[in-house]
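Most newcomers find our protein records easier to grasp once they have seen one. To make this concrete, we reproduce a full record directly below:

…
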Amino acid sequence: MSGAYAGDRTTGFASPASDSTEGPIDLSAALDLQRPNRYPVRVVGDALAARGILHGDILIVDTAARPQSGCVVVARWQDQTIVCEITRQGGGWWLRSGKGQDAQMHRLDPAHDSEVWAVVAALVRTQV
């Protein structure tokens, strides 16, 4: 007997939807991890809990994607790697990290050791 659950074998009475069960889900394919610019990154901290990103979550990031205002990115800022929201204001890009009144805004400026490394494309939660 295989260790994978296929959805078609149950105990008790058979489900009326048994003929429409989906096969095994391939997370690598669903998250497009075969692309060379996609990486899993584990979150440390809860600065973006308001966005639904929690400590221990796994983010699937795309280093080839172009950031858009309001999306979540992984960035380098003053020798730190941070997960933050990027916004466009006043003709420049800003990184917002933290939550509530503790939120900090940092101007994105490659001349001063700051850059976007990747855009967050997906989130995987291993604990519910």
